[in-house]
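Here is an idea for our session: we take a single protein and study its fold together. Start from the sequence, derive the C-alpha cells from it, and show both lines together. Once you have written the record down, we can walk along the chain together:
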Amino acid sequence: MTIRVAVGGDQPLFLEVLARTLDTADDLDVVAVAHDYETVLPTVERTRPSVLLLGETTLGGEPLCLASAVRTTQPACGIALMVGSVTPSVVDRAVAAGALGIVPKTARFSQLVTTVRGVAGGCLTVHPALFQSTRATPSSLSVREVDVLRLTGGGATVKEIAAQLYLASGTVRNLTSSAMKKLGGRNRFDAARIAGEQGWL
C-alpha cells in the first residue's frame, strides 16, 4: 500500500530535496510540497495525504498551530515533525498539538521513513534520541521534590509551600529547580504538569 505524503515548511530548497528523497522509498508517494506556512493547510485539504511531514528548524508556535489545525480539519492525516531541538519538552508540545511522529534532523533517512510509516499506521513514533537519559523517572524524584511539585500543581506559592512543608523558601526554590532539570520543565508549573501527567504526584 502506497503512503501519500505532503511535505511543508518554510525552507523551499530543503523541502524540495526532502520530497525528492522521500519519493525514492518504494511505498512513499510525495503528492505535494507546501513551500510556506500559509499554503500548508490548503495543500493538505486539496491533496488529502496520509501523512503531513513538517520540516522545521525550530519548533515554534506556527508549526504547532498548523499541526493542531490539520488534526482538526483533516483528522485522517497523520502529522510528523522534523525538529532541530531534541528535548523532552519538544516531544510533549508536539504530541499535545496532535503530532504522531517526531524525528530530529540529525536522524538517518531510514529513521525518517520509519517515522512516516509509523504515523501512517496511526502509531506514535518518536526517535529514541528524543528520550534523554536525564528525563526523570519516579525513582529519580526525591520525596521532597514530589511534595513541592504536588503543592505547586495546586497553585501554592513558594512561601505557602515553605510554610506547609516547614522548609525555608530558598530550599523550596532549590528543590523546584532540581525537579525542573530532571523533568525538562520550562518553569515550576510546567514541571508539576509533566509529573502529574506521568502519575508521579
Summary: The chain has a mean pLDDT of 86. The first strand starts at residue 3 and ends at 9.
